[in-house]
Inverse folding.
């Protein structure tokens, strides 16, 4: 996730700087840039370059400045406003699909600001179909039906999730249990069903790229994968594939972990790894293999063209893990 | 003040109805209308007809819907959003000049919602020059300097208010004391001075229209005026003129009250009263004088062309009082 912080006052800039430091610790966040003053012009310039834009300023300035820039709830970045005394942090635009609500909660956690979320499902303690899809990296085909499904759900209706795959792990999610049921389906894709209406859903491919020192055993690797997924607030079951570089072909730990977890393991050729543009760069690995980060490159390669990292390289005890998701925009 | 309430969900509509009932008790509020669904189209239709628009809905819906309608902070209505569980009420647009912040606080008071105000002066416990002007019904000529003055004030600067009139009563206002000083001036208008910069200010004319039964004494009338002004969160000193109908020329109470308070008293001809379009209509008064409300008509007439009621007829113990303010938009 790439985040822009915008401020107009001295105290706003101070908050921006503190927030940048804190947000940069989050392995899901790859870049945090600070902009000061010239709000309107800056927004026009950077609007499409960031996943989230956080304005430390009065609501009115932000609203008036983004008006000409908003296009579509499926494409617009998350827009968040925090007052420049840090009292409230408010999710403004793209609450669900753009992740503004989650980021608002994270910022509230990192600071002493109170989160303000106004989307109807959330204020009534429900998980809308768009929030569900966002959380588990599912693509929704017919987004025009989201409002109808969410409204029914607020009225107490249960939505059936019909899937060819085992999605039992979703029941560990309290908000899921409240509004959804699961049914085994025959079709290849997932369907959310409400009476005679349905929403078509495709899970994106979630790939964990793994790099290890020699001789790391499977328990440690499984533990590392669990930790990595938990950063994304996901259970290990959601993972689709484990990927690593061809130089790890002899590593029993990875091979056994893949077998135990029943997740396919892909070894990526060094030449393919070298083609990927990684976020993390280790000069040691770079010198040895010509790759910035083996785990990131492997994850990106297996997640395919148009994929993106959602967890940058994180290291635990001799293991480095990154997570990539396949192209999300096209159904 | 005319207020529009907009909702999209069932629970939003329920909140609208409760809010309408509560807001209608406020004598500063003359009309509260409820609209449900079709947010974008409704807003386009009603945007210029209301002083304040309150959306009981997710922030994103409101922001996306007003984008094409906003023009200028001196003209746009106050825009407020409340989530449809009534947890937060958020001042969005026209916080100061449009009064959105004050209305947000009032709604929070009337409900269990927490107010969210993001304007920099307010979150830092200061009263900006625009908020000061709004509160005391002053017109600001050079609004382009507001930001500069407010920023200085946030940095701890003191702004000098130079006035030909005695404005000592402002010192009862704690927020005023914090950031302003008063100086006796020679010029006819008020000036806010910061170093070599100045903002020109003209107070609007504030007129209390009074109607009484026969023989009401001055103490009661003064008490009534105090109460009326306190609804506007103003001290009695801010009042410019007392107005009543010519049929009250023999009423000692009003005449003495005017003398004691040192506020000029104007008697308005019946024919002039009849020309005013009052908000309140008493069929008794209508039958007797051909006027809907003597106090409202007198206040409006003396406040002049383009004036408006800011407090509709309120009755206390045989006295009816309304307050009008002279034209605010033109300096």
């Amino acid at each position: 996730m790439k985040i822009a912080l915008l401020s107009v006052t001295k105290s706003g800039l101070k908050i921006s700087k503190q927030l940048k430091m804190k947000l940069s610790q989050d392995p899901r966040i790859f870049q945090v840039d600070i902009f000061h003053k010239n709000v309107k012009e800056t927004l026009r310039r950077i609007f499409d370059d960031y996943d989230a834009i956080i304005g430390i300023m009065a609501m009115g300035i932000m609203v008036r400045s983004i008006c000409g820039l908003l296009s579509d709830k499926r494409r617009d970045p998350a827009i968040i406003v925090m007052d420049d005394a840090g009292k409230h942090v408010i999710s403004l635009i793209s609450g669900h699909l753009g992740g503004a609500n989650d980021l608002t909660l994270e910022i509230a956690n990192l600071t002493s600001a109170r989160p303000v979320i106004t989307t109807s499902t959330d204020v009534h303690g429900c998980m809308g179909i768009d929030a569900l899809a966002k959380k588990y990296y599912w693509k929704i085909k017919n987004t025009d039906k989201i409002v109808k499904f969410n409204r029914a759900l607020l009225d107490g209706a249960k939505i059936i999730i019909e899937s060819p795959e085992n999605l039992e792990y979703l029941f560990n999610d309290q908000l899921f249990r409240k509004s959804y049921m699961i049914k085994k389906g025959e079709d290849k894709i997932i369907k959310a069903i409400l009476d005679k209406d349905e929403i078509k859903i495709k899970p994106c491919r979630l790939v964990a790229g793994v790099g290890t020192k020699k001789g790391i055993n499977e328990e440690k690797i499984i533990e590392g994968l669990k930790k990595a997924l938990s950063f994304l607030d996901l259970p290990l079951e959601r993972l689709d594939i484990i990927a690593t570089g061809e130089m790890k072909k002899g590593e029993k730990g990875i091979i056994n972990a893949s077998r135990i977890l029943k997740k396919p393991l892909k070894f990526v050729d060094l030449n393919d790894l070298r083609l990927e543009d990684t976020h993390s760069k280790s000069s040691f690995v770079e010198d040895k293999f010509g790759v910035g980060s083996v785990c990131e490159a492997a994850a990106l390669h297996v997640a395919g063209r148009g994929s993106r990292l959602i967890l940058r390289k994180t290291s635990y005890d001799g293991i480095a893990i990154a997570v990539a998701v396949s192209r999300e925009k096209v159904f």
